[in-house]
Amino acid sequence: MATIEHWIGGEFTPGRSQRRGPVFNPATGREQHEVVLATEADVDTAVTAARIAFESWSQASLSKRTKIMFNFRELVNARVKEIAELVSDEHGKVLSDAAGEVQRGLEVIEFACGIPQLLKGEYSDQASTGVDMFSFREPLGVCAGITPFNFPAMVPMWMYPVAIACGNTFVLKPSERDPSASNYIAGLFQEAGLPDGVFNVVHGDKTAVDALLRHPDVAAVSFVGSTPIARYIFEQGNAHGKRVQALGGAKNHAIILPDADLEYAADHLTAAAFGSAGERCMAISAAVAVGGAGDALVDLVNRKAGDVVVGGGRDPRSEMGPVVTAAAKQRIESLIDSGEASGAKVTVDGRGLRVPGYEDGFFVGPTVLDQVDPSMEVYREEIFGPVLSVVRADTVDAAIELINSNPYGNGTAIFTSSGEAARRFQRGVKVGMIGINVPIPVPMAYYSFGGWKDSLFGDKHVHGPEGVSFYTRAKVVTARWPHVSHAYDASLHFPTAS
Ligand code: NAD
Fold first, then answer.
1. Which of 103, 149, 371, 491 is the most buried (most CB within 10 A)?
2. pTM greater than 0.85
3. Does domain 252-436 have CATH number 3.40.50.150?
């Protein structure tokens, strides 16, 4: 069984700890690798490598950084299949979905290739007589990324391309459940010409995370994961003087109005609820049927959910793979039990699914719960599995109110043919990312990604313009070049323009 090691200063590093974590293949249910779990000393080694590399990388010209980013883009683009296989084997998602996540990450790398344009400063000629004023942005130093299991390639790519293109160095602490894609990426960066120490990977759990949060040489922390940990990261990072963006969990609702094309809505709800086994922070987990839309919608969704082909991620026929661990399977099934016990109708039941050839895999089939009430645990909890709850609401306003009373605010969607209703929805919901007849409204890389309320702690979303802002800080210069020194009187007054 292979041991997955850290990548520090441009090489694999075993680390000082004997602690190891298991890495499963969720389709077979078997442990396939073990991953080293970092100590505080290992984290210090990685941060030190990044701090030393920062001295020269922060001085590298825009042109050099851009060339390396373009090289990296070409390498990732050429290896989408290899990265997708690593993701599929450790996460469980089907290969086409894994390739899709790499593609969405690649878009952030492409965005970062435009860094010279993004870092252009401002200039005011003759702000005062003989005085010019200009601003530019500088990198912060060592930035850390702490990422979840559900997008082992894409979510780190939301962070490090922008951070590194801005002139920072980076320490990534990926999820210990599916760590291999990050090491593979580190090798591609080296092949692209990135100097050693600019991009480092430490594997581990809470010990590694806490060491990053406390380390005096870490300037900024980007986190994506569940809400309780996001809140913890935000509070601890702030307490240790770091800039923090911490993206949390979600409970995404889609509203379906009676005037929507219900066939279209049911197709897209099925894809958004069961794609990646519902383990997406933008998955739709609650469908709010407005007015008379409910019964017809549930009939359609039941049929489509029943048609989803569940199987191993490497099997080209599979549309949906297993969930990530045995514990996740058990938790999801017990939430379905609790929904049923509190009165919801299980109209499609994915509990106890056995997939031929993968009898020990962590599979839960697509599940639809109708007549769900917002007081039920299955509605309140983020399930993070292939479960769609259908809730009924009398009016659009009642549906908007339901969304707004939820503590999360990541993504939401409306299915309608009414522009007026869509506009009321887009203006009324307290959610960061909104889809109109688009169920998974993930912004392109040149916009920023982030939710509201318990879905994001901090004030900057990831990638796009807010990512550039997060990974840099501004300097404003006021300059005078007097050629006749006595022409400018110095005064004890507070300086004002003249
Ligand atoms: P998680 O919070 O368990 O883990 C995320 C990271 O935090 C991992 O690297 C993990 O090692 C670390 N971690 C776990 N427990 C910790 C602790 N006690 N102290 C310090 N660090 C700890 O999340 P997960 O299960 O890997 O991922 C699923 C969650 O991520 C879901 O809630 C999902 O909604 C969320 N998510 C959100 C977004 C978003 O954009 N808002 C995107 C993807 C995933």
1. 149
2. yes
3. no
Query: Could you give the CA distance from residue 98 to residue 16 in angstroms, rounded to a whole number?
Result: 32
State which fold the 2-248+455-477 domain adopts. Answer: Aldehyde Dehydrogenase; Chain A, domain 1 (3.40.605)
Cα 170 to ligand 1 centroid, rounded to whole Å: 19
Pocket-testing residue among 91, 182, 209, ligand 1, by greatest number of atoms within 8 A of Cβ: 209
Residue ranges covered by each domain of the chain: 2-248+455-477, 252-436
Catalytic residue ranges? 281
Mutate to test the pocket of ligand 1, among 36, 177, 229 (most ligand atoms within 8 A of CB): 229
Q: Is the pLDDT score of 484 beyond 70?
A: no
| 178-207 pLDDT tens trace | 999 999 999 999 999 999 999 999 999 999
For ligand 1, the distance from its centroid to the CA atom of residue 145, given in whole angstroms, is 12
- Residue 488 confidence (pLDDT): 63
Report the nearest-CA residue for atom 16 of ligand 1: 206
